[in-house]
């Protein structure tokens, strides 16, 4: 049926004057056509931040995306936090830059690691990630697939405190619980309390421990062989720099005659975007400018596919146990009610409940009267 | 554009024009770099390349193979792949697919041309569209099976027909009944682009008249050819597509021979009374067809096939049998589909 013959266009053309050249067909415009459609549709990206309180997570997010997502936040004191469990809070922001629209969702995990007993404090987080996968799986298997919302978590920034000597047990357990569900990027938080030497030692130590404990953090994809040397060099530097030691700031200070984001100390000014001060710029470039698309791809192609395969295996093995192999197994629950129907059903349910209560009351009254 | 999302706690939404931070304390402007995602996507598209499957339908002798060769400036049709010109007209409609990998400007395309010899050639052409309909649905089924698999391939090979060029005979009178029957039945499962073949047998006026008549007949028959009105996404699309719909069906001439005209080498047909230049918009509408098909709507053809025609097929399949049996890659049993 097929014969594969490779034809190369003799003239690699891109300009309009050459457009009418003999051999130019024009399908080289396909990336532009895809581009046009994507710009119209816009993109979405879900980023999770995890780590103890006070690691500078909110500040870093604000610095990365030049927003102020947490301005009305009320910080709890220790007493108020005693009974707090780990929560999941989503913030969504629409950002537009040079015509490209991004719907950015930040998933915050306040309460993580803050209790006295932090056993399994990552469970609400893994549950949340699984829920998003499950929702996507249902939507994907459903009948109406036109407007599926992708709420899957594309990346998790994990903040390691700079005060210790490497990974703590909670760090190891958290990352191991999540490394097969989400792309983990470990960061050394508040890096301005360490000297360059201390940072280097800490990074080496952490890298060693990540290897030792078999934690699979997000791996940067290999460079294409046809990339130029400069790019390859940058890429190499990036890989050797992990985990990134970051600093964030919500304030603007004056340094070297310029207004920059930074932190003012008596002994000097720490500039967030100064590469010799911290790895913030490397993180931002990697996260947004070069690997955002890859993070999404790995989430879809690896983490989600793993979840899906597991889910299906469980479904089929469960049904095998129930001895119902003869009938065709529906890959989707027999009817996935949409939001409207769900609402209606809920309303009706509540109405029924109320009526039931009224009836009970009336019966009680009649009973009392009789007495 | 403000979007409100309510989760456990109220969330903050900001509308940004440019990348100004709207926080109270921070007035630092800067560049985040979100627009680079386009470049990241472009790189990916270039690396992975893409598939495009085009089917040609029409009875023998309408220049289908030549037109496809002219469109892609390569010998891509079945006949050029070295298959002998059939001596006998096949008794039923055959489906023959030939693939080639073309490369241009760093973009790789695996082009598959699906030919349908025998269509409309018999004395009794009843149901001659059935093998074609069956082939189209088989490709949807193949894709669906892959999608439903437990371990799925990263990039499911796409053999679905993205575009069906239907060749109308240049009788100058009207559509033939077979044309109407075919397009009526298949316009809901595949993108049909009708073209008037061998347009050099008509003068410009005859062409215009013929086109008007054909369009009226298509309208009366309720035939929605591509680009379908109901899938226009926004005003910009609608106005672009309206212009194209007004000009369709394109009257085309194909040729793979070159001649010298006014000092330039052009593709054309040499007759005793002059040279018909294929890419000359004054001579025929080939250039318009090519620009529409390849340079502006190639991606859209694929998307409509995937998001609409394929989804229609899939919904139908899911509603039958109460569902699909998930197939594992090492499952040797016949699935009960």
From TrEMBL, chain A:
GO annotation (BP), single: cell division
Chief location bin: cytoplasm
UniProt keyword Isomerase, yes or no: no
Cellular component terms per the entry's GO annotation: cytoplasm
Annotated Gene3D superfamilies: P-loop containing nucleotide triphosphate hydrolases
Molecular functions per Gene Ontology: GTP binding
Keyword Nucleus: no
InterPro entries in UniProt: G_SEPTIN_dom (IPR030379), P-loop_NTPase (IPR027417), Septin (IPR016491)
Sequence similarity: Belongs to the TRAFAC class TrmE-Era-EngA-EngB-Septin-like GTPase superfamily. Septin GTPase family.
Protein name per Swiss-Prot or TrEMBL: Septin
Automatic annotation (TrEMBL), chain B:
Entries under SUPFAM superfamilies matching the protein: P-loop containing nucleoside triphosphate hydrolases (SSF52540)
Gene Ontology MF, one: GTP binding
Any one cellular-component term (Gene Ontology): cytoplasm
Cell compartment(s), UniProt: Cytoplasm
Transmembrane segments: none
Keywords: Cytoplasm, GTP-binding, Nucleotide-binding
CDD domains, sorted: CDC_Septin
InterPro entries in the cross-refs: G_SEPTIN_dom (IPR030379), P-loop_NTPase (IPR027417), Septin (IPR016491), Septin3 (IPR008114)
All copies of domain Septin-type G, residue ranges: 48-320
The family this protein is said to belong to: Belongs to the TRAFAC class TrmE-Era-EngA-EngB-Septin-like GTPase superfamily. Septin GTPase family.
Name assigned to this protein: Neuronal-specific septin-3
Organism per entry: Sparus aurata
Organism lineage: Eukaryota, Metazoa, Chordata, Craniata, Vertebrata
